[in-house]
Write a structure and sequence with these properties.
Helix content is 35%, strand content 17%. It has 377 residues and is of the alpha/beta class. The strands form 2 sheets. An 8-stranded mixed sheet has the order 3-4-2-1-5-6-7-8, with helices on both faces. The chain has a 6-stranded parallel sheet with strand order 11-10-9-12-13-14, sandwiched between helices.
Length: 377
């Protein structure tokens, strides 16, 4: 059985991202899932983070028979600005990982990493292979980072890795220059869950619904969404997802037909999406949006619902035969009207077929085949 330490950038609980979906599906593997650390400054912004500062002392939590989740030791802030701080943090994390590796009877596990910061970890933890799974253009994030430092850390990690996976073409073009063992595996969908939304809703609706699912973050085009709300006053615009700290939603908050549902457990999402008439995928143009691989898009495909999308992220163009892709805001509104009027069972069936082909089960099988072909697994 393969032994894997996953150094994640997302907590295992409560909401699944690529990290959990991949780890949950790896075959014949025992996994230690390491949640990302909170920094000593985090409680100043989020009171709930104070409890997480000491969570690492409580030991592991069994998430599945083969997955144990551990909280990381707290970290010094500014590690994405100063490499020397990252080295201190990774040294402490390496000590912690070596301890839990011993406690679980692991011997030289694979390290499966999701952050450029792991560049200073891989040589500190004995391992039989390093996999870097790159899910974003990390240097494009806002906040306390130095893009040049982050890019250099990513370069170092990619060069040290035995295999690099990435979710978007732009990331692939960058990372393949550092490591010839680089493959693009976009995000996917839990098809078995989201295909349930294809069944008609039994609820009586008073208004058609345009729906958006996902984190409410800076890279979403809220001005475009405001125009949708104003253009279709007899429709509702529903947002399902967590509002990220500091994100300005004033453009849409004042619209009377906009509704914020908040976070919804993944297993309950099909009940909400079932009521959608049109699913929206709306990103601002930019370096981060261009290279993102939104889970929501593949989840939308699995539902069979009409989808209206901006031209970014670039991956949407692979599905141009069944997705309404807008070059600008004016076209976006026009396509929203077309999508609302769509009654095409062939397009619906084809969207679901795409969603099934992009399921997490298929994505992880691709990863495992590549790792076996490269003799890493």
């Amino acid at each position: 059985m393969k032994q894997i330490v996953c150094v994640s950038t997302s907590n295992y609980y409560p909401f699944p991202t690529r990290k959990q979906n991949v780890m949950n599906r790896l075959s014949d593997a025992e996994i230690l899932y390491i949640d990302p650390p909170v920094t000593y400054l985090a409680p100043l912004k989020d009171k709930a983070a104070k409890e997480r500062l000491s969570a690492w002392r409580k030991g592991g939590v069994k998430a599945k028979e083969n997955i144990t989740v551990y909280a990381s030791p707290p970290a010094l802030p500014f590690f994405n600005k100063y490499r020397w701080i990252n080295r201190l943090n990774q040294k402490r994390l390496a000590k912690f990982i070596k301890k839990v590796v011993r406690e679980n009877g692991f011997e030289r596990p694979y390290l499966w990493c999701y952050s450029p910061t792991s560049c200073d970890l891989t040589e500190l933890v004995p391992n039989r292979g390093v996999i870097y799974d790159c899910v974003d253009r990390h240097s494009a994030y806002k906040g306390m980072i130095n893009p040049e430092v982050v890019d250099r850390m990513e370069e170092d990690l990619a060069k040290r890795a035995d295999m690099v996976f990435c979710t978007a073409q732009g990331l692939y073009e960058t990372l393949k220059e550092y490591n010839s063992n680089t493959a693009m595996i976009p995000n996917g969908a839990a098809y078995e869950i989201f295909s349930q939304a294809a069944q008609p809703s039994e609820d009586e609706k008073k208004q058609p619904i345009f729906g958006f699912v996902g984190m409410l973050q800076d890279c979403i085009d809220y001005e475009c969404l405001r125009e949708v709300a104003l253009k279709f006053p007899d429709c509702r615009l529903q947002f399902i997802g967590r509002r990220m700290p500091g994100v300005d939603l004033s453009a849409v908050e004042s619209c009377p037909n906009v509704e914020f549902i908040g976070l919804v457990p993944q297993t309950e999402l099909p009940e909400y999406i079932r009521r959608f008439d049109v699913c929206l995928n709306v990103f601002q143009e930019g370096k981060l949006s261009k290279d993102v691989s939104p889970l929501k898009f593949y989840e939308y495909l699995a539902t069979g619902k009409p989808i209206v999308s901006t031209k970014e992220p670039l991956q949407v163009t692979d599905f141009a035969d069944v997705v309404y892709i807008a070059e600008n805001r004016e076209k976006f509104l026009e396509l929203c009207a077309q999508a609302l009027a769509e009654h095409d069972p062939e397009k619906r069936a084809k969207r679901m077929a795409y969603g099934k082909a992009c399921s997490w089960d298929e994505r992880v099988k691709q990863m495992e085949r590549i790792l076996e072909d490269k003799h890493i697994f």
